[in-house]
Amino acid sequence: MIPSYYPNNTRFLIAVDCIILGFRNKELHLLLTRRPVEPMKHEWSLMGGFMEENESLNMAAEKILYRYTGQKDIYMEQVGAYGAVDRDTGGRVISVAFYALVPMEQFDTSLAREYDARWMNINELPHLVFDHNQMVQDALTLLRYKVSTEPVIFNFFEERFTLPALQDLYEAIFQMPMDKRNFRKKLTTMNLLDRLEDKDKKSSKRGAYFYLFNPDKYSEFIRTGKRFSL
Amino acid sequence: MIPSYYPNNTRFLIAVDCIILGFRNKELHLLLTRRPVEPMKHEWSLMGGFMEENESLNMAAEKILYRYTGQKDIYMEQVGAYGAVDRDTGGRVISVAFYALVPMEQFDTSLAREYDARWMNINELPHLVFDHNQMVQDALTLLRYKVSTEPVIFNFFEERFTLPALQDLYEAIFQMPMDKRNFRKKLTTMNLLDRLEDKDKKSSKRGAYFYLFNPDKYSEFIRTGKRFSL
DNA sequence: GCAAAAGTGTTGTACTTACACCCATGG
DNA sequence: CCATGGGTGTAAGTACAACACTTTTGC
């Protein structure tokens, strides 16, 4: 126990819950698990865990992300703290939610199986325990804001992506169709992407060019006072 | 103690810190206090306190706001949770920050004096304890977003306000000048304000009309698919 | 009567939206 | 050869930015 100047105040359990998002099949997906402990055991739940003594909130979230995905350096952002008195029927727990963007191209499903986890289409979510559905809603609202003001959408891909896939992802995030030419215009006028030589032939006969997001171009873009906008 | 299914996990102290903002003299102000306890006793600090057993995060924040301002029903929004391991040198404390908008027209300074509190110009802030300066920055970023997408700016006023004052406030929040005619155009085209008969003669000889924000008009505005934008 | 702040419209520019056809290729 | 998805430009409309003068009144 760390020495404390504050010995006489109530202490609380703190949980960290992760909204792990991925993109596959033109749809957003959320990694869910069957809750492993009582109460609400076996109900659908976000990936979560209790915070431990010598870790920060971010470290706790990263630990959970690594446990369920096997990946490190995942893009992640805090959604907020949830502190209603009776939010967790198992006891008084304050929970801090994070959302995370995970490339699903070659997702290792062995960990997911081990933890009774499953990717669910964001539009077909089951009822989740406690206030987890609310956390998901809040995360999506925040994600939409972030995606439209910062280049975070590229974190849904391992590295390369095609413009048709990027547009499908954008439409999945905002749940609205988007004009193809206007979408491409926005991206090409910002000039932050590098087109590669080869094409993705999986989703069409003609094939779509692969692109990379170029962080150097983005730094320069920002340095000259411009702002990303999608 | 609430019965708990989670008996074996570490518990933490949770603090709530409030970024209490007000508008006076064409400038944003922040209510600060001299920290009353060790460590860092007498240093400048946000208004805060420890969360107690049977209250939610929001209730804890409202309690702090009431203690230092004497007001209830203050507009308030969560900024986020701060959980670095060594953020508080007095012990392991996770803090949840809220910002609040307080009308300063007839602010009761007796409570502030009692608690060694003082309104400071947001542009002349001293160094604050721990990560409180960071919390203020994060709160301002969030406030700017909220002000430009929802009609929260009116919470800085008791009730009535003049357009010149509203514009001064807007400029103080965004720290940039704004064209007078364009600003008024935006407001008048949304048609959410009611002009009153009388004028504020304090800040000019001619006097500026008072206005009220009309929540009924706003409901209708939203119902018809429009979105507030400043 | 003058200083000081309040109030008021128009025009050019930039951005956003809508829209249709040709291309490349695997089967 | 044809079905499927990939790629491309232009024109109209809308929103935003820039700009200067008149009005009111306390002193």
Main beta-sheet strand count, sense and barrel state of chain A:
7 strands, mixed
Mean pLDDT of chain A: 94
Classify the secondary structure makeup of chain A into a structural class.
alpha+beta
Helix-residue proportion of chain A: 25-40%
* Largest interface, counted by CB within 8 Å of the partner chain's CB: A-B, 38 and 38 residues
For the secondary structure, the number of strands of chain A is 10
CATH superfamily of the largest domain in chain A: Nucleoside Triphosphate Pyrophosphohydrolase
Oligomeric state: homodimer
Shape label of chain A: globular
**Number of distinct helices of chain A:** 6
What's the architecture of the largest domain in chain A in CATH terms?
Alpha-Beta Complex
- Counting structural domains of chain A, the number is 2
Keywords, please?
homodimer; alpha+beta; Arc Repressor Mutant, subunit A; 6 helices; 30% helix; DNA-binding
Blueprint of the fold:
2 copies of one chain form a homodimer.
Chain A: E1 11-24, E2 27-34, E3 44-45, E4 47-50, H1 57-69, E5 75-82, E6 93-101, H2 109-114, E7 117-121, H3 132-149, E8 161-162, H4 163-174, H5 180-190, E9 193-200, E10 208-213, H6 215-223
Parallel strand pairs in A: 1-6
Antiparallel strand pairs in A: 1-2, 1-4, 2-3, 2-7, 5-6, 8-10, 9-10
Chain A binds a DNA duplex (27 and 27 nucleotides) through helix 5.
